[in-house]
Structures are given as C-alpha cells and as structure tokens.
Amino acid sequence: xxxxxxxxxxxxxxxxxxxxxxxxxxxxxxxxxxxxxxxxxxxxxxxxxxxxxxxxxxxxxxxxxxxxxxxxxxxxxxxxxxxxxxxxxxxxxxxxxxxxxxxxxxxxxxxxxxxxxxxxxxxxxxxxxxxxxxxxxxxxxxxxxxxxxxxxxxxxxxxxxxxxxxxxxxxxxxxxxxxxxxxxxxxxxxxxxxxxxxxxxxxxxxxxxxxxxxxxxxxxxxxxxxxxxxxxxxxxxxxxxxxxxxxxxxxxxxxxxxxxxxxxxxxxxxxxxxxxxxxxxxxxxxxxxxxxxxxxxxxxxxxxxxxxxxxxxxxxxxxxxxxxxxxxxxxxxxxxxxxxxxxxxxxxxxxxxxxxxxxxxxxxxxxxxxxxxxxxxxxxxxxxxxxxxxxxxxxxxxxxxxxxxxxxxxxxxxxxxxxxxxxxxxxxxxxxxxxxxxxxxxxxxxxxxxxxxxxxxxxxxxxxxxxxxxxxxxxxxxxxxxxxxxxxxxxxxxxxxxxxxxxxxxxxxxxxxxxxxxxxxxxxxxxxxxxxxxxxxxxxxxxxxxxxxxxxxxxxxxxxxxxxxxxxxxxxxxxxxxxxxxxxxxxxxxxxxxxxxxxxxxxxxxxxxxxxxxxxxxxxxxxxxxxxxxxxxxxxxxxxxxxxxxxxxxxxxxxxxxxxxxxxxxxxxxxxxxxxxxxxxxxxxxxxxxxxxxxxxxxxxxxxxxxxxxxxxxxxxxxxxxxxxxxxxxxxxxxxxxxxxxxxxxxxxxxxxxxxxxxxxxxxxxxxxxxx
Length: 772
Prior knowledge:
Elements: E1 12-13, H1 36-41, E2 56-62, E3 68-74, H2 76-79, E4 84-88, E5 98-99, E6 106-107, E7 113-114, E8 120-126, H3 129-138, E9 140-145, E10 167-175, E11 184-192, E12 204-209, E13 215-219, H4 224-235, E14 242-246, H5 259-272, E15 276-279, H6 282-288, E16 295-303, E17 309-321, H7 327-336, E18 346-355, H8 369-387, H9 391-396, H10 418-427, E19 457-473, E20 480-487, E21 490-495, H11 504-516, E22 521-523, H12 540-567, E23 575-578, E24 581-584, E25 590-592, H13 593-597, E26 601-608, E27 625-640, E28 646-656, H14 663-682, E29 688-689, E30 692-693, E31 711-718, H15 734-752, E32 758-759
Parallel strand pairs: 1-31, 2-15, 11-32, 13-14, 17-18, 21-22, 28-31
Antiparallel strand pairs: 2-8, 3-7, 3-9, 4-8, 5-6, 10-18, 11-16, 12-13, 12-15, 16-17, 19-27, 20-21, 20-26, 23-24, 24-25, 27-28, 29-30
C-alpha cells in the first residue's frame, strides 16, 4: 500500500465544508488502540496462550467424507490408551443434540449421518496434546460412503440431506410491472467462489469446570451470550451455569468462533472435572468454521436507449453447505440489494438458499451483498458497452439518492451520496504508466521473475458501486447495554461488545473522553456476567454499543454537573466540559473535572435500541433495514494478456461514512476491507472436489499479502450524518469488501475485452479475447 498523503485520511466533505484540524482526544481524534503495543510486542493474551493447573488437552475426530452413513463408532482402543481421560460421542451429549444461531440443525457430534467434510464425530481429553490426537485417530468409525450433493442446482431434486429438507429459504421479490421491458437487454451468468474468513489465529479455548456443576469457557467469541446459551442447552444446564469469557480476539471478519468448537470443549471439562484446552490446527479451522456462500447468479437487465434502467430480473442461488447457519439473512441481503445502488422502476428477483454436502457457509463481511455486487456491476458494464457509453457515465444516469425507493419498497431515508462518490473516483488522476525498463520489472504482473513480456501487458480501468446494510435486518431486536463508572479520576466502561479489530474499545474511550473530559478511560474485559451487547457484525457495535456508552456517559455527566448547577442556580445545559474543564455560559463558573470529581464515585447504565425493522413479506417487500452505507471504487489493473496474470495497480476509494470518529482507524479499516476484496477477486477460493476440501491450509489457500496489496487511495470520505444513528456514523469495513471485487473484475474486462463472469478470476479468463 502507498504511504503517501493520498492514502492517508483526506479532508472530509460535509455541510460545513472541509475539516482539516483534528482534535487530540475524544471523537474525531486518531486515538491509537489500547492493545496495539501488546499485540506488536507479542504480550497480548490470546486464547492459545491460556493455561490452568491440571490442564488436559483435547482433540476432535472429524469425518474424512463429505456424505456418509455412520454405521458404528468404537472408542475402546482410544479410551484404553495411557493418558486418555475420556472419549465422548453423540451418546454423551446430556442436553440438546443440535445447535445453531438461527436454526438448531447442526449436531454437536454426527450420529447417523455425516453431512460435510470435517464434521465432528467424537472428542478426546488426554494429559498431552499428542496423546489426545493419537487417541482421536484410534477411534474406529465404520462409514457407508454416500454420493454427496455438491451442486446447489441439484439440491432441489436430490433426496433430503437433512430432516428439515434441502431448501432453507426462498425469497421471491416482486416490484413494479412484470410486463415492463427495455429497448436494450443484456444477460449474464455469474459464479462467486467460497471465500474463507481466514482468521489470523486458529480457534483455541480453555474450559474450566466450576464447583456448582457449571463451566467457564475462555475463548475468542464474537457473540458470547449467544454462544453461552447454545452451549448451556447442549450441556443440559441453565444459562447461569455457563460463563463465556472473551479472551484476546486476533481479528475477525465473520463468525470468529464456531459454537461447534466450544461445545465439545466444555463437554470434556464437565466429564473430566478438569480444565481442558483445545487448540485447532489450521486444517481443522478451515474445515470447521463457516465460509462465504458460493453463489450462482443469473441476470437480465432492461434499459432504454439513453441507458436508464427499466427492469432487473435475477435468480440468486446460495450454497449454504450442510447447515443453515446465517444463510437466511445472507439471502435477504442478496435479494434486497440485487439491483445495487441504482434506481430500478421494476424488479423481479428469485432467491434461494439450499443445503448441500459442501462446507458450511455463514457470516463473512458483506455476506450476500458482495456476491450480487459482482453480478450487477458486470451487467452495468455490458449495458455501457452495448450502448457505447462510458461505464461511469452510465452509472451516474441511474444512481440512487436519498428519498428513492429500494426494490423492497423501503424508502432510503439515510444519506445516499452515491453520485458524489462516483464522481470523486472518476475525477481522481489516474496512476502513471510504468516505465519500460528492467528496473521496473517488479511492476509487471507476476513480478520480475514472471515469464511475461512488457509488450503483452494491457492496462484496464473499472468502476463499481456497492452498498450494505448496517445492524441486523428483518425484525432483529438490536439492543446493547453499557455501564460507565467514574472513580479516582478514572472512568471504566463495562460493555459486552467484543473488540474484534473494528475499534470499539478505542471508540468507547473516545466517547467518554468527549462527554466527561476524563483522559484515563479503561474498557473492561468481556464476559457473559455482563448484560448482552449482541454479535460483532454489520458495524453494529459502533452504532448500538457506542450509543449505549454515550447515553451512560451523558447520565454520569448529569450526575457530575447537577451539584454545580444547583449551587450556581442554573441548569446543567448551561454548563459545558471542554479540555478537562467545566465552565458556565457566562464565565461565572470555572473548575476542572478532577476537582468536581474529588471524593465522588459516579456510575450509570444505559441501553441503545434502534428503531425496529420488519421481515420481508411473500413478495420481498418490507422495511427490513435500519441503515445503509455506500462506496465507489475505481480499480486500475495491469494484465498480461498472454499469460492471464493480473496486477492491481491502484484502488481509488470514495466512501459514505456518516461521520469520521477516528481518522487513522477508519483509514485502516477501509484499506483492510479493500485488500480482503482484492483477495476475493483474484486468489481466494476454498476449493472442493466432491465435497472434500482441497489443501485446507495457508499454502493451498492463497491469501493476499502485503506484496499483493495495491496502492489504496482514499480520495474522499463524505460526511453526511445519519440522524438516526448515534454520532451519525456508518459502518466502514464491509462496504469496501463488497465493492472492490466488482471493481477489479470491471478493470480486467476493460483490459482484456473478456466478460469475466467468475470470482476469483482465473488466468484463462484474463487472456485477451481474440481480435477479428
């Protein structure tokens, strides 16, 4: 990535014009993360570092088949091995045999059927990690291997893979006149691959049994209260008997921890009466957690002779893998955003999510929205080519704005500066062409050791517009609770919002600094003894948990100012806190916050709950989303049209952020999102053969590294505050993930003249089309 001024956070455009001066603390300051030093020095307490007296080690036996009937399980040899304490299977689960965040369809251990490669069969606790793994390997399982259903199109007619059937959800969206047609029609078939969230650290955890018969689970959960409830039900315990303590999270771009990992861990601790630790290998991590939904999309766009959209028809098929996971809500996002941030008078979309014997799919940044963005933007490029229009100009003729109506019937009430975002990236200067010299060989696609020739390199420029929803959707009850305590000149924030790298802990400190004028702010560690704050997805902690912290801090502020206001015969509204000082409007009162706090202990608890949403109805209509965020990206790529190798030269980004709360942190989030999107566009695809994961490791799964990251130019951040959101801020990291793969694909189309209808882009798709 570039380190020059263009990559740094630019001046933010808003109603008051450019804002160049940044505060040193509070909201708007580039406050560093409290844990940044510990992480860089290697002292940050990750789950894999946990230890306890009398520790046992766990291992899980996983299925080598994608689909099989379990004929028998013999644990005798494993249980008799020296050092083995216990072996557990489905017969040893004391409570609910299945679990799931939305649908309880996933077994703790497979009993009669194996439905995907890597499904858990049994677990072992032993006094040494090698002993545990050897014992797991010694469990004798007799399988009757069955033909797997791996093509989601075949799932409709295939025998049921699950008692609930193969169809998880069907959403038919109907908007406008079905007989409407345009003068120009373009069609396309698109496929999106299986992207893995690839967390920095593989799953790990420690379970410690309690004297009351309960268990404490220490792990990097991103939704501890839901994980606690699911685990307690499987253990046959009440929620009060299970405690989830969140250890250091080494980053998360989806569901960081699979409950299917935590439940065997706690079960082993309860059976042995000893602390048990489980640290997954990278292969187990790939096989166990959820991935982005592979998706098949068919599109037909109608437009008039001027390029204005008339109707969009689409079919969207999500491969959910073996279990439901988050497929229902991913499908809702895909169907609702199938037309993109464009005005479409008539839309008819069919969406399905189906079970297969492929690896499970679930939450990954921008789920649903990313897949459809790649397809509808490819359609916009086809329309532009058919009409002889510049791709950016075609998009500008159709962009959404505040007050327009989505195909779901919901009015866009939040700021939607889509045209401004697109104009910003379109007008940004293009990067210079590399010189044709040996010294610049590293700039060629494939690098200096590549087999290509400079004369075979073509440059392409592509545009994409993306959108995501914030918070939960379709009636999800979004609520978070926070407590702010002040004692001895220091403030403490207690909130169960997990810091996953999105910056909530830093934001909470900034909110309290801004509201109370206290520099020293500590954010307490998270566990399920605290009130719930919900999952760390869709930017919800900035909105919901940040809003709860702000309300609690304002209540403490009132407690602090009331005695002073009463003493001087004025209301608290006439007092302000600035730079650690309390002053009145007339200058009569002037004191420091520390003096006002002397000898006092203040605290308050508050909740934040956004306005409710509703499920999509039988025609795909309804006010399903709380808020929306938008992004425009211009990608510049160099393609070796003989070899099909691609180098992303530059990504110019303009984003609708609502309000900049931490400039440095925001820039980092955008850059990380763009890089993850580039990975989805070019390299990341967890490949399977008849349902079996091929190369489940970081050698076979190609993540983009720092050498693969392009120059990312954040050319404009539009600050138009969303009045219903605390602080007016919007989610920052998901929308560049959604938009960047489509932009890269558009740029490759520009360079090669080929359609590029599959992500990630394969080399053969980047070879230039033959000329007539």
